[in-house]
Every structure is written in C-alpha cells, then in structure tokens.
Amino acid sequence: MQMSGSPNSPLAVYLNHLSRGELAYQYSPKVQRAVFYPRLVCPFTGSDELEWRISAGLGTVHATTVVHPAAGEPYNVALIDCDEGFRLMSRVEDIPPDQVRIGLRVRFRVHRPGGDEPPMPVFTPEEEA
Amino acid sequence: MAGLLRGGAAIVGVAESDLGQVADDMSVFDLMAQGVRRALDDCGMDLSDVDGLFSATTQSRMSVLGLAEYLGIDPPFLGSTIVGGSSFEYHVAQAVGAIQLGLCNVAVIAYGSTQRSVGRKQASVRESNPYETPFKPFLPASAYALAASRHMHQFGTTREQLAAVAVAAREWALLNPAAWEKKPLTIDEVLSSRMVSYPFTVRDCCLVTDGGGAIVVTSAERAESLRKKPAYVLGCGQSTTHANISSMTDLTVTGALAAGQAAYSMAKLGPSDVDVIELYDAFTINTILFLEDLGFCKKGEGGAFVSGGRISPRGSVPVNTNGGGLSYCHPGMYGLLILIEAVRQLRGECSARQVKDCEVALVHGNGGVLSSQATVLLGSESTV
Q1: A77 contacts B136? CB cut-off 8 A
Q2: Gap between the Cα atoms of B17 and B38, Å rounded
Q3: How many domains does chain B have?
C-alpha cells in the first residue's frame, strides 16, 4: 500500500525511460536548468519542483579516460555533456577507446546488458552534417 | 573558518603508527592506539588528559567507539566526520572549535588502515552508484584521470609534467627513512610503467600501504608548557563541491580554491607566506590542481610550475617533503600523515629533508574524488 507521495523512485522512472529507448533527465523550471542525476529535491532551488524531460540524445565528450583492467581489454569511460545542459558518466562505443577525444560529438543509444542488469546509456560518434 | 580563533589551539603531539606492511593480523585499532600512545609520548601527556577523541577509517563504521573502548576512555567530546582522506583536516577545525568553546581541552585525532595487508577490496565497503558503476570506472583513479584529461585539454598539461610530480615526490622520499619507496625514479620510468587509467600509469597513482597515526590538539595556553614546540592552528577552510566525479562542475577547479581562501583569510596570510606545502597527492594531477587552486601559481600553469625539479628537494618550492602518498605512504586516507609532516617541519625535526627557516606550513587534505577539500595553515610561535 502506498503510504505517501512518491509512487516511483527517481531511478525507477529513469530506468523505465531507458528501457523504452529514451534518455530522461529532469528540468528545474524556476532556474530553467537541467538536473542530472534524477532526484526528489532540486539541487539548485531546494524545492521539489522538477519536471521530467527526454533528451534529444546529442552531446559532446567532456572528459575521457581509458581503463586498463588487470585482465581484459582496455575500455573507455567518459563524461558526456548533453546538449540540454546536463552531464553524465557513460562510454563511447564503436571506436577504439584511445580514439575518444574531448569535444567529440556523440549520439545516445541504449545498451542492454541482459540478465538482471538494467539498460545503460552509451554513446557513439555522431557524423557531423 | 569564520568563528575559529587564529592561533587559539595548537597541534602539540604527532606520531605515525607502524607504516608500510604492518605485522600480520594487526587491526586498525591496534594502529590507532599505537599512534595515540606515541603522540601522547611526543608531547608528554597521558590518556587521562584526553577529553576529546576523533577518528576515521574505512574499516570500521563506528571507529571512534572502537577506539574509545580499546583505550579504555570515555571522553566527553567525540568526532568522527568521514569525508575521505581529508577527514583529519576537518577534525582539526572541529577540535579547534570544541577547544575554543570549552567542550574539550585535549583532543586526539587518530587514523589506522591495514589496506595493504587485507587487500584494497576488503578495506572499504563497495558502494554502488547506478549512474556510474555500470560503466566500470576504476575508482578512484579513473575519476582523477577524467580531471587530468580536462586539464591536459584546456591547458596543454602533459604526461611528462604529471610525471615530474611523481619524480619530485620520490626525491623527497629518498630523504625520509620512513618512506616505502627506496629507489630513484625517472620521468621515463613513470611514463613507461603499467597504464592504469589514461593518462595515469601506476607511478602516477598513490601507493597502497598500511599505516596510521595520531595527533594531539590542545589550547594555545596549555600548549606552552608541553614537551615540544607547538604548531599553532592559524587557519582552517573547507569546501565540498561534489561526491561523484560526474557531478563535479569544473574538473579543473577544485574546492581547494574556496578552502584555501577561507584558511588564508582566517590566518591573515597568503601563499607567499608559506614555507612548506603538504598536499594530498593521491594522483599526480592533485599536486598540480592544488598548487593552482591554493594560489602558488596561476590556473593552468601548474604543469609548467612542477617541471624542472621546482617542487623537489633541489627546487625552490618544497612540496610534500615526506615523499607524499606517491612514494612515502598511502594507507587510503592519507590526510593525517601530512599534518604530522607539517608539524615536524615547523619543529625542525626533519633532518635531511628539513626545510630551512620553516615558520608557516600549509596542509591540504583531499577526500573522495576531488570531493572534500580542507586546508589547515600551521605556524610556529613567531607567527602567532
């Protein structure tokens, strides 16, 4: 039985969108800024006024590293600045990890690891028009 | 920090516990207690004098309780803020405040870690962040590597400049008998070591050792009559900008900027007054970022600043004189050990690595992934 106001956690809403192929983020109307990661209280205003929005899925690599695990192949970890004004950790796929450059334009896609693992937002290089 | 009295309290006793690889089955409380006993001996006090107790470790959720039990004391004032490796710089500010308010008069701050003995994975709770963990960043290294990538991109900082930080730390370590590393290191060796998280090789990363220690803080009044020269707390400042690296607004500007400004303001001092600089060098980029943010060089110029041996024992700016987390000792939350080194420098106890005419020391602790930043300015009697 529902005891109070939040039927779903922010993470559950986010993952539901991801499972539908959407990269969701929040928007704080009072300061007109994107908020990420999703939460119940806005870090800019302290209020609980937050709207859910869907990203167009385009962004720019803000920072990047290549992790060299003790076993296995090196892989990319990056911070992506989405055009709507929020940043998230992700990785850039489809190119070698050491070819991921700061400033590279990238496009979102959903990676579905399968099993019990939730879907993940990953990015691929965007062909500039 | 506003509200704290400049020079109102002093660090009067300092000691490391056993360091490096400690005896089998030593606990974090063994190391903390060993540090406390030695630190009290350093200043000529006893456990019965202690009425304030602070501790932090990754290996016990309620460490200050365990330590009080182990020592058989019931101090009226307890503190256990845990914000990573800078926790102890936070504790110093809290101890100064508690002493100023009369909540306690003799505060002991202790730390212990057996992360080398038990393995890094056993030494701290695995925390999962649904927005980061799935991408398998090798934390904390990858978070600092992301910051380094920005610094390299924006300012042209090079891997050779990062390596210069590791080489300088090693040169200092060779002057410190307590240091883990005993052999010289070159820039080429740093660059050609095993890559961990680009641009960091294993030599850009802090050591993984056991270790700990304790410090004793008391009022300036009481400090005068003790065994060693007091290190007066002239300034404290703190800033937390984020917890997770994906929430750090500007990866090239850390909370050390605000922490340093607050500490300088309280101390009525500036960077040019500082004789020795003890920074938390978890990774080579730390030293560069903190030298910039604490005002020793301009933003973006840290890479050039550390080059050419300037921060080594051969250079003009003594930084991390114990050999740092990179070459001396890094038990996971290293911030206590830089307070100890700063006090010893102010006392003139550092033999081969002693900085001449050392009157003002800057200690800067770093916690999390560039998250919690805390600066403590210490001074000899002449500065009060």
Answers
A1: yes
A2: 8
A3: 2
A111/B257 Cα distance (integer angstroms)? 39
Task: Delineate the domains of chain A, giving CATH numbers in brackets.
Answer: 10-125 (2.40.50.840)
**Same domain, residue pair B74 and B150:** no
Q: CB neighbours of A1 closer than 8 A, spacing ≥ 6?
A: none
Domain membership of residue B126 (yes or no) is: no
Q: Do B245 and A120 touch (CB under 8 A)?
A: no
Per-residue pLDDT of chain B (384 residues; tens, 9 = 90+): 889 999 999 999 999 999 999 999 999 999 999 999 999 999 999 999 999 999 999 999 999 999 999 999 999 999 999 999 999 999 999 999 999 999 999 999 999 999 999 987 788 877 899 999 999 999 999 999 999 999 999 999 999 999 999 999 999 999 999 999 999 999 999 999 999 999 999 999 999 999 999 999 999 999 999 999 999 999 999 999 999 999 999 999 999 999 999 999 999 999 999 999 999 999 999 999 999 999 999 999 999 999 999 999 999 999 999 999 999 999 999 999 999 999 999 999 999 999 999 999 999 999 999 999 999 999 999 999
CB contact under 8 A, B135 and A66: no
Q: Quick check: pTM over 0.80?
A: yes
- ipTM of the complex model: 0.96
Cα–Cα distance for residue pair B239/B241, rounded to 1 Å: 6
CATH, residue B379: 3.40.47.10
Which residues have C-beta within 8 Å of that of residue B357, sequence separation ≥ 6? B275
Q: Which residues of B touch A121 (CB under 8 A)?
A: none
